[in-house]
Design goal:
The protein is of the alpha/beta class and 258 residues long. Helices cover 32% and strands 22% of the residues. The protein has helices at 35-46, 57-65, 79-86, 139-150, 154-157, 167-176, 186-189, 194-197, 224-233, 237-245; strands spanning 11-13, 23-28, 50-55, 72-75, 96-101, 103-108, 130-133, 161-164, 181-185, 198-202, 211-217. The strands form two sheets. The protein has a six-stranded mixed sheet. Helix 1 (35-46) links the parallel strand 2 and strand 3 (50-55). The longest helix has 12 residues, at 35-46. It is globular.
């Protein structure tokens, strides 16, 4: 099964007879291999099932502006929740920084691309297509463009770029062989499947603005208590270890955003 299987589909975690109302979560695509475990841990602890929809943060931002019925929004870019807060669409004081994301250059092992050489490997004549997330609405795509520009490579490879709707779709392009390399989230490079099939080079964080990720409770939510409880569950040692194991940097998980 490819990385994109089930992407953007709602997934219910928990049995039909769970105690308490369910929580609807909009989650950035880089979370699709860690969020199910976080949601299942919360379900076991509280009896509340969690429904998760994955996609690009920019698209969720627009959907929430237009009344999409989510209780929580986990964004890969803190600016989207901040803008929703400015518009009065989030619960006051609920915005929390939950992680800092990282990007990597990833390629399948059978491509024999020397990713250890860094982003300059993209100049290889055998690299015809390079997958990134769409920078218009995906924070990981903007980070990829910034990193290429930092290394003075963007103008040299822009004609090779293929853009996924989100970072998970960009990863799927490379995994499937429809792209020769991709700049994707470290969390996806560490996921089952990609980890075994590919090699990656971690792009230095100094090459791009920080990917500061934040979550917020939606003001229109009918399950605010449950949403706040799910956010609080990110502070548990188990959740922190899980996020770190999946490639996220957490300096102070659960701390209210500035």
């Amino acid at each position: 099964m490819g990385l994109m299987a089930g992407l953007m589909a709602r997934r219910m975690v928990g049995p039909d007879d769970a105690v308490g109302p369910g929580i609807a979560v909009a989650a950035a695509a880089d979370l699709q291999h860690v969020m199910p475990e976080l949601a299942e841990g919360f379900r076991r602890a509280t009896g509340r099932p969690v429904t998760v929809t994955y996609g690009s943060s920019g698209n969720f931002f627009s959907q929430i502006q237009n009344g999409a019925p989510f209780d929580l929004f986990f964004s890969a870019d803190i600016e989207y929740p901040r803008r929703l807060a400015t518009d009065g669409l989030v619960e006051p004081g609920s915005l929390v920084e939950y992680a800092t994301g990282r990007i990597v250059l990833w390629s399948r092992k059978d491509r024999a691309l020397k990713v250890g050489g860094g982003l300059a490997a993209l100049l290889d004549a055998g690299v015809r297509r390079i997958a990134i997330a769409n920078p218009d609405h995906a924070p990981y795509g903007r980070a990829a463009v910034a990193a290429l520009q930092h290394q003075h490579l963007y103008e040299r490879v822009v004609g090779k770029l293929v853009r996924g709707e989100n970072v998970a779709q960009a990863a799927q392009f490379v995994e499937s062989g429809n792209a020769d390399a991709g700049i994707i989230a470290l969390s996806l490079a560490l996921a089952p499947g990609l980890k075994e099939r590919g090699l990656y080079y971690e792009v230095p964080e100094t090459f791009h603005p920080p990917i500061t990720q934040a979550a917020v409770v939606i003001r229109a939510s009918r399950h605010k208590d449950g949403a706040r409880a799910f956010l609080a569950s990110l502070r548990t040692p188990e959740a922190v270890r899980l996020m770190q194991a999946n490639g996220f940097r957490l300096s102070a998980p659960g701390v209210p955003a500035r």
